[in-house]
Amino acid sequence: MTKDSVQVLIDLDALRINCANKDDLVIRLLKLFIQQGSKWSAELTDVFSQGDERKVRETCHRIKGGSATIQAQEVSQAAIVLSDCVKNGKLKDADGENAFNQLLDLIDKSMESAQDLINTTVQ
């Protein structure tokens, strides 16, 4: 993955500003995001397959906040879209399925980007 594609998923400049340009803090947050991202994906898959609308919205809320913290705005926006599908009664129709798949894909790609930033850009 190139630095350009990483920058699209995680805004490193904004993250550094939020972390007072302390790369050690940036690295810790990126590592935490990777750990949480795996948990979010598993939890979201579970509650989505159960059709538990309340838990899907709660999980989306955590994903939205955690991804916004590390400046992964596409993930945050995708969580909002899925949450809105639940709110509008569209969890199990094509819109909900597409939003769910898009969010899982972006979480996965953002975790890869976070690892790439840890390995190359930040150090």
Can you summarize this structure?
The chain is mainly alpha-helical.
Shape summary: elongated
Low-confidence stretches: 1-7
The tally of domains stands at 1
Quick one: how many beta strands? 0
Look at the structure and give the mean pLDDT. Answer: 91
What percentage of amino acids are in beta strands? Answer: under 5%
The end-to-end distance, rounded to whole angstroms, is 17 Å
Describe the structure.
This protein has 6 helices and no strands. With 123 residues, it is an all-alpha fold. It has one domain: Four Helix Bundle (Hemerythrin (Met), subunit A) (Up-down Bundle), CATH 1.20.120.160. The chain is elongated, with a radius of gyration of 15 Å. It starts with a helix and ends with a helix. Mean pLDDT is 91; it is low at 1-7.
Record keyword descriptors for this entry.
123 residues; disordered N terminus; 83% helix; mainly alpha; Four Helix Bundle (Hemerythrin (Met), subunit A); single chain
